[in-house]
Predict the 3D structure of the following.
Amino acid sequence: MPMDEHNSRVAHSFVKAGRTHRAYCDRLVGKIGLHRNQHKILMMLSCGCEKPSQKELAKRLEISTAAVAVIIKKLEQNGYITKTSAKADGRFNEIEITPKGRCVVEETKDAFSECDRVLFSGISEEELAVFYRCCEKMCENLKGAMKEESE
């Protein structure tokens, strides 16, 4: 098989695995009653001590502030977060995770651990190490190509 065809098949398989993994994760989070970005916001809030603004969350998720507002409203209605005006500047809302939100985060961590177990089932530690190095190299290659294009 010619190298270009082989590379194309490998790239397609890699992308397909990523899409399948994402669909599986979306299903797991959906069973808990969350959408992907709702889950991401809860994960961000559970990891830090700071109370980010909606604008900061939008930047981190790379979505619009309007989309974050809708997500925040839903999370607040379900009791996963609280939203208060910032003391320093009342124009900004500070978002904080609630104990109920923390429980959901722990539940999703368990679900993702199970996902990882399924994902890597039958793959040796050596194979995973090689795969990890390949993924890192692919990222470096693509970042390098993007940097060259922007110059």
Observations:
- Strands lie at 81-85, 93-97.
- The radius of gyration is 20 Å.
